[in-house]
Amino acid sequence: MQGEIDTFVGFKFIITNRLDANASSQRRVIAWAQDGLKLAVGKDITARISERSDKSYSNQIYYCMSVGATRMDEDKVVEIICSE
Questions:
Q1: Inter-residue contact 40 to 66 (CB < 8 Å)
Q2: pTM
Q3: Which is it for the CA torsion 69, 70, 74, 80, positive or negative?
Q4: pLDDT tens-digit profile of 62-74?
Q5: Which of 57, 15, 11, 50 is nearest to 31 (CA)?
Q6: CB distance 16 to 25 below 8 Å
Q7: Predicted pLDDT at 24
Q8: Distance CA 15, CA 30 (A)
């Protein structure tokens, strides 16, 4: 253990900085059961590293993947509004 709480009452916490806020500046958080969401991979990972002569031969990194997710069961995905 590293002294961090990542699981509580059966919930596994995933830390992210990509959560949206509503018009009242409240954070919109989701919770879901594992079988409540499905992920589909349309195109696998493509990566390319090359030099750019117009940028003093700096490295340019290109990374691409096509994915999508959907709810499989409305009752297994919920939104929680949090005040910060």
A1: no
A2: 0.59
A3: positive
A4: 999 999 999 999 9
A5: 11
A6: no
A7: 85
A8: 12
